[in-house]
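quick one before i forget lol
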Amino acid sequence: MRKTNDKFLKEAIEQMLQVYKIKRRYDETGVMAHWADLVGKYVANRTREIFISNKKLFVRIESSVVRNELMIMLIVIIYKIYEEAKEVLVEEIIFL
C-alpha cells in the first residue's frame, strides 16, 4: 500500500528537474543524444558538432550535399523535436 507522500520514480525525477531548474537543459541534451534518430544515421555520421544555445540548434556538417538536404528539411526537423519534447526547444537551425 502506498503512503500519501509516495511518488513514482518518473514523477520524482520530473519534480527534481523542475526544482533545480534544469529541465530545459535536460531536454536539450536529449535532442543532441537522439540526433541520429531525428535525421538518420547517414546524416548523423556526417555531423561533426551539435549544440543548442538560446533556442537555436547549431549543427556542423562536413558534407555540403547533406547540409543542403537538411536545409530543405528545416521545418520537419524542428517539428520532430517539438513532437518529442512537447515544448519549443528549437526555433531555428543554423548550419556551420
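fyi Residues 74-85 form the longest helix (12 residues).
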